Amino acid sequence: MLEIIGPKIVFVLGTTNIITLILVLLSCRCMLGSKIMASQFNKKWYQKFYNLHCYYWIAFIASVIVHAILAILVFGNPF
């Protein structure tokens, strides 16, 4: 079963990694987000977006861990 659906799950998790990384960077006030989103810091929608910053990190880390484990299980160790 893992051989059939595994690559699809790995692909979806890879896409999730990219999306959650973008959310983390844009909601961070001390990295990339501070330059791109600086004009939005005082707006209400950005404050709501920023309040979820820690959850974006949790989703990103969980996605990376599961993605890595499944990639090794499905495709094997590349070394």
Concise description?
The protein has 79 residues and is an all-alpha fold. It is 78% helix and 0% strand.
Salient structural properties:
79 residues, mainly alpha, 4 helices, 78% helix, 0% strand
Textual characterization of the structure:
By secondary structure, this protein is mainly α. The chain has one domain (2-74). Helix content is 78%, strand content 0%. The chain is built from four helices and no strands. Helix 1 runs antiparallel to helix 4. The longest helix is centred in the first third of the chain and has 26 residues, at 2-27. The radius of gyration is 16 Å and the shape is elongated. The model has no long low-confidence stretch (mean pLDDT 89).
What proportion strand? under 5%
Percent of residues in helices comes to over 70%
Per DSSP, the total helix count is 4
Which class of secondary structure composition applies to the elements? mainly alpha
Shape verdict? elongated
Q: How does the major sheet shape up?
A: none
- Low-pLDDT residue intervals, each spanning 5 or more residues: none
Distance between the termini: 24 Å
Number of strands: 0
The total number of structural domains is 1
Q: What is the residue-mean pLDDT, rounded to a whole number?
A: 89
Query: Helix and strand string, N-terminal first?
Result: HHHH
Rounded to the nearest angstrom, the radius of gyration is 16 Å
